[in-house]
Amino acid sequence: MWRLALRAEVIGVGTELLLGQIANTNAREISTALATIGVDVLWHGAVGDNLERIEKAVRTAIDRSDAVVITGGLGPTSDDITAAAVAAAVDRSLVRDERLAGLIRGFFEARGREMPESNLKQADLPEGATPIEPEGTAPGFFVEHEDTLVFCLPGVPWEMEAMLEKTVLPTLRARSGEAVTVSRHVLTVGLGESALAQAIADIVEAQTNPTIAFLAGGGTARVRLTAKAETTPEAEALIQPVEAAIRARLGRAALEPGEDSVGGVFSSIARGNNLTVATAESLTGGLLGAHLTEAEGASDFFAGSLVCYSTEAKREVAGVDPAILEAHGAVSAECAVALAEGAARVYGTDVGLSTTGVAGPARQEGKEPGTIFVAAWVRGRSEARRVQGYGNRANMRLVAVNSALDLARRMILDANR
Ligand code: ATP
Ligand code: MG
To answer: Which of 47, 117, 322, 349 is 20 to 30 A from 309 in CA distance terms?
Structure first.
């Protein structure tokens, strides 16, 4: 059995984080890395370059966590005060580590540069701390206090990441015993997060390991299953029956496993069925084609896109019958079908996909923003779907892309039955 997971806290030090001048990407990297060894990150914090506030943040973290990972403020300048603040938080004094001081001197000598005396302050560590070899010029360190391990790493991302891999992860792994966290996703399109949650509520209710979470966006909703175990195969074995139950419940609404995006799933189905694909895009202006060409080797099945934004282009480029435009308008199921057929005809493909709609903010043809039609033409059969877009323009366009891909996916799979 794996032991109770360590509780960890991540603290970013630097006033630029609080001012919004840089994003706290270190926190994300550290959380991602700690998850791979089954350490639970329960808090993220950020604090400015202020001695008392850093000390307070570190004391709070030590009280409630088994491991604290701090980044930033280990440099040579006067606003780099993390080591002093951590020393205060663990009731120790700062002591110069002569070996580190030698390394820092050597770094400058090797480059023939004069070393400002202030750089030696980077060799001052809380008494009893274990130094972490510098990757650039800033050494890191860790110190244990009241059964909590406190790691201090430089703010520079690549230096931080190297120390994380070489020192933080191995040290914590040794502490926690072997434990891993594994996540898998079940992707759905067009269901909506609450409908999805409702459909599998009893399965979610009955579950503690894996834990189940819902994530939505761009017309997709996904179920994330996260299991903890001693080894990856054991974690996967815990996930497998629960994932199978969810997939059985959702049927065709659950996208096939193995790919992390709707474009990826569709591409592998098109490839697997030896189908060539083209698109005619109004609303999405090429985004559908972009999704289909994201992965390497798209030229196996993808021929090209017609971006026909104007009504003339729909007529002249995709060959949409003027009578359709006259009778139903450009934002209509009929026009979407004609676009999908047009794409397949122009490129001579087995499948044509299309999007048309009102991204907003203004109404168009008397239709509300969010009115979206997608269509697919698969070897002589065509179908359109009306979809409700939501959010900003970018999200509406994603809804259209994912809905078109999902419609074609279902048609191809249904044809195979
Ligand atoms: P240095 O020796 O370079 O001074 P340091 O440990 O003092 O290192 P900071 O001065 O706090 O680190 O940050 C150095 C740079 O690293 C910042 O300018 C920023 O670009 C980046 N950085 C710092 N903190 C973070 C963070 N939490 N997430 C992403 N990048 C960061
Ligand atoms: Mg600095």
So the answer is: 349
